[in-house]
Each structure stands twice: as C-alpha cells, then as structure tokens.
C-alpha cells in the first residue's frame, strides 16, 4: 500500500474513532462511508456550542484527492446552511486553511475538531461566498442569528432528504443512515 493510501486510511480511522481524549469542540459526529470507499464519505455533526448553529445537525461531504495528504480534501455542506463563508446553493466552503494553506501536517480530525467549529463560531463576513449572510451579519447581527436558527430548524434538523436533493444530488441514499 502506498504511503498516501495508508495515510487516508489512518486519518479516516482516527475520525471514525473520535478524538481519543482531545479537548473537543465538536466530537459528536458520525462518519458514513458508502461501501469500502475511503476517498468519499459523509460526516454528520451538531453545531458547536455557544454558536447560532449549536442546535442544528449538519452534513458535510468529504472527498479525498489521490494526492491527499499533500492536497487538501474537498468538503461541502450537504444540507443548506446560512453562513457568510458557505455558498448557499452548492454548500462549498470558503476556508483558507483548507483551500489555500493546507499542509500534510493537518488531518481529518483537524477539519472536524478545529477548522469547521471555528468557521461556525467565527464567520468571516469580509471574505464571503454568501453575500446576503455577510451583509446581515455585519449590519444586523441579531437578525443574522435568528435567520441561522430558522434555517437549521427547517433544513438542518430532521429535514426530508428529498428537499435536499437539488442541493446535494445523489446523496439521498447515503444520508438515510443518518436520520435521527
């Protein structure tokens, strides 16, 4: 087995097992792998405490490129999330540490224990993918929080998977296993 393939498996197993004692911001997550594929999988998690996202359940699709860990994974939200740094239509995430400053020193645990919780706790409205969310956060922070909570009640928690099909084509079957 080549080194990058071994690293993919090791990182995925660490993610599946959880944090192993880390002081976690978001260790309540589930990993779903369709079959034996270690390059494409989904992760369901609760939003971080003390954020407008804390009562929502979010799903992120992850794709590990052949050059992982030297090249960053591709991640995107499968269900809609109102956030300045997440494209509302596609779920794409604008996060410099994943998109531009990725290093082989990072792993999947970093994404789900550090990078995504930080993104949800501290949105960056000055570099938005969602201009509406950024403008609302800058001009009316309380209305922004209300909108986030409204959206995750209707989309993030217990939403019918068919509602998400236009957002995340082809993930309906694999997400059925995540329903609470």
TrEMBL record:
<keyword id="KW-0808">Transferase</keyword>
<keyword id="KW-0832">Ubl conjugation</keyword>
<feature type="compositionally biased region" description="Basic and acidic residues">
    <location>
        <begin position="146"/>
        <end position="155"/>
    </location>
</feature>
<dbReference type="InterPro" id="IPR000608">
    <property type="entry name" value="UBC"/>
</dbReference>
<keyword id="KW-0007">Acetylation</keyword>
<protein>
    <recommendedName>
        <fullName>Ubiquitin-conjugating enzyme E2 H</fullName>
    </recommendedName>
</protein>
<dbReference type="InterPro" id="IPR016135">
    <property type="entry name" value="UBQ-conjugating_enzyme/RWD"/>
</dbReference>
<comment type="similarity">
    <text>Belongs to the ubiquitin-conjugating enzyme family.</text>
</comment>
<comment type="function">
    <text>Accepts ubiquitin from the E1 complex and catalyzes its covalent attachment to other proteins. E2 ubiquitin conjugating enzyme that transfers ubiquitin to MAEA, a core component of the CTLH E3 ubiquitin-protein ligase complex. In vitro catalyzes 'Lys-11'- and 'Lys-48'-linked polyubiquitination. Capable, in vitro, to ubiquitinate histone H2A.</text>
</comment>
<dbReference type="GO" id="GO:0004842">
    <property type="term" value="F:ubiquitin-protein transferase activity"/>
</dbReference>
<keyword id="KW-0067">ATP-binding</keyword>
<dbReference type="Pfam" id="PF00179">
    <property type="entry name" value="UQ_con"/>
</dbReference>
<comment type="subunit">
    <text>Interacts with MAEA and WDR26, components of the CTLH complex that contains GID4, RANBP9 and/or RANBP10, MKLN1, MAEA, RMND5A (or alternatively its paralog RMND5B), GID8, ARMC8, WDR26 and YPEL5.</text>
</comment>
<keyword id="KW-0833">Ubl conjugation pathway</keyword>
<feature type="region of interest" description="Disordered">
    <location>
        <begin position="146"/>
        <end position="180"/>
    </location>
</feature>
<dbReference type="InterPro" id="IPR023313">
    <property type="entry name" value="UBQ-conjugating_AS"/>
</dbReference>
<feature type="compositionally biased region" description="Acidic residues">
    <location>
        <begin position="157"/>
        <end position="180"/>
    </location>
</feature>
<keyword id="KW-0547">Nucleotide-binding</keyword>
<feature type="active site" description="Glycyl thioester intermediate">
    <location>
        <position position="94"/>
    </location>
</feature>
<feature type="domain" description="UBC core">
    <location>
        <begin position="3"/>
        <end position="157"/>
    </location>
</feature>
<dbReference type="GO" id="GO:0005524">
    <property type="term" value="F:ATP binding"/>
</dbReference>
């Amino acid at each position: 087995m080549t080194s990058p393939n071994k690293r993919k498996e090791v990182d995925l197993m660490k993610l599946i097992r959880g944090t192993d004692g880390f002081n976690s911001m978001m260790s309540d997550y589930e990993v779903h792998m369709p079959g034996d594929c270690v390059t494409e999988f989904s992760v369901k998690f609760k939003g971080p405490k003390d954020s407008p996202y804390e009562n929502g359940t979010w799903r992120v699709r992850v794709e590990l490129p052949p050059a992982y860990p030297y090249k960053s994974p591709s991640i995107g939200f499968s269900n809609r999330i109102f956030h300045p740094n997440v494209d509302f239509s596609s779920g794409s995430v604008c996060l410099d540490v994943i998109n531009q400053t990725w290093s082989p020193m990072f792993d999947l645990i970093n994404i789900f224990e550090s990078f995504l919780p930080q993104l949800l706790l501290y949105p960056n409205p000055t570099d938005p993918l969602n201009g509406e969310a950024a403008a609302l956060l800058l001009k009316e922070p309380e209305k922004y929080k209300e909108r986030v909570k409204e959206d995750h009640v209707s989309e993030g928690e217990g939403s019918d998977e068919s509602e998400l099909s236009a957002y995340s084509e082809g993930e309906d079957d694999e997400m059925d296993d995540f329903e609470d």
